[in-house]
Amino acid sequence: MSAAPSAVSPLFATFARADVAFERGEGAWLYTESGDAWLDFGAGIAVNALGHAHPHLVEALTRQAGKLWHTSNLFQIPEQTRLAQRLVDHSFADRVFFSNSGAEALEAAIKTARRYHYARGNPERVRIVTFEGAFHGRTLATLAAGGQAKYLEGFGPKVEGFDQVPFADFEAAKAAVGPETAAILIEPIQGEGGVRPVPHGVLRALRELCDAEGILLVYDEVQTGIGRTGKLFAYELSGVAPDILASAKGLGGGFPVGACLATEAASAAMVAGTHGTTFGGNPLAMAVGNAVLDVVLAPGFLDHVQGTALNLKQKLAAVVDAHPDVFETVRGEGLLIGLKCVKPVAEVAAAVRGHRMIAIPAGDNVLRLLPPLIVGEHEVAEAVARIDAAAGDLVAAGA
Ligand SMILES: *Cc1c(COP(=O)(O)O)cnc(C)c1O
Fold it and tell me: Within 6 Å (CB) of ligand 1, which residues are found?
């Protein structure tokens, strides 16, 4: 374990950090300075899609670091164009805007949706329908989109223009759409909200509603994208494509990268001068993003993710059955897995940490498992054993 933090930290106290620091990582394993190995089924909150120190990513980053870091978007950035083209070739999209984070990708998505209607002579169409339990980021607009009171409190007037309806409630969404609506924004599977998949029929109905009303369907795939669900993007599971999609987390494999993908029609109004970023899409980030796609799009990789996920979920189902006082169900798609807890999830996560394994609490009293997509049978077996042992501890403690 690391040394205890000093009494007065120079950092904002915005995070309740566990008292452990890691020095290096390899694959799904993290190592403290004193050499303790931790099994990482959090992957930096679904970020380290290829685990730690993946040789192909290390090579791409170090090679680029010796050539060119940053030029700004005043110039051509060939690796940026190449990454955009690859995302276009493997999705519904025709165009991409790169940012540094998920929230910024969502900001670009929201602006793109509003500008679409503005350019078509409907400047009143600015409102966006969102869903309870959503998480879209921590900027002022994405907080308003997420609509969670606990995150909005104390930060002044809520950004106008978001109408929230109950989770996955199509009728409520339909009722919320009016003459000022620009778009419907939804996570195909809520991540922070507790690994809650939206039924495919609801996504299909939302698509039809958007088409009928002339409004845009926007997916937040910041957490679900880049292979996490066993598909490049989770919307492929339903076959219901959006007009705009926000990606981030796994896209940079640990390097900060976000992207807003859109169809030609949805992005047509985003012309020179309408939006921008200093850092977004810089050569370092793009070298890593391309390296991530080299691996994720390689033949067989996503099949491997699906196979691993099936194996993990089956084994977890047995753990759930064995500990009905701790766990209720296992759910999710691919390697975005939620264990719905009976005991408070914070206690369960702490018990798992006691076995040197990282899993991440989410809403709805769910423990999230977000392992790197490269985990193999050994890590799956280890994870299941550690979760089983942690559940045993909780039962023994009689808490
Ligand atoms: C993490 C997350 C975001 C915010 O991403 P940041 O990079 O933290 O800004 C937005 N939407 C979803 C679904 C996320 O999981």
Answer: 101-103, 106, 135-137, 187, 191-192, 220, 222-223, 248-249
